[in-house]
Amino acid sequence: MPMYNITLKDGASPDQLSKAKDDAKNQGGEIKHEFTLIKGFTVEYPPDKVTALETNEHIHVEQDGAVKTQ
User: In the predicted model, what is the mean pLDDT of the chain?
Assistant: First the structure.
């Protein structure tokens, strides 16, 4: 399953973070990492269900991938 970085938008509450994590887990995702400096997490998630996460107005969804400098 692909990995996705989920970050909460400015002004999102801790309750909204908890709800986003619960939603991801309830839809078949497995949280792999939780960020400490920003409100967010990395989740391994079924690709056919990612649109369900994207409908949450308080979060930003981005597929995880390798970063290259050159």
Answer: 88
44 CB contacts (<8 Å, ≥6 apart)? 1, 2, 3, 29, 30, 32
Q: What are phi and psi of 6, to 5 degrees?
A: -115, 120
Q: Please check the confidence at residue 53 and state whether its pLDDT lies above 80.
A: no
54 and 4 in contact (C-beta within 8 Å)? Answer: no
pTM metric for this prediction: 0.82
Determine the residue type at 7: T
CA atoms within a 13 Å half-sphere pointing along the CA-CB vector of 2: 14
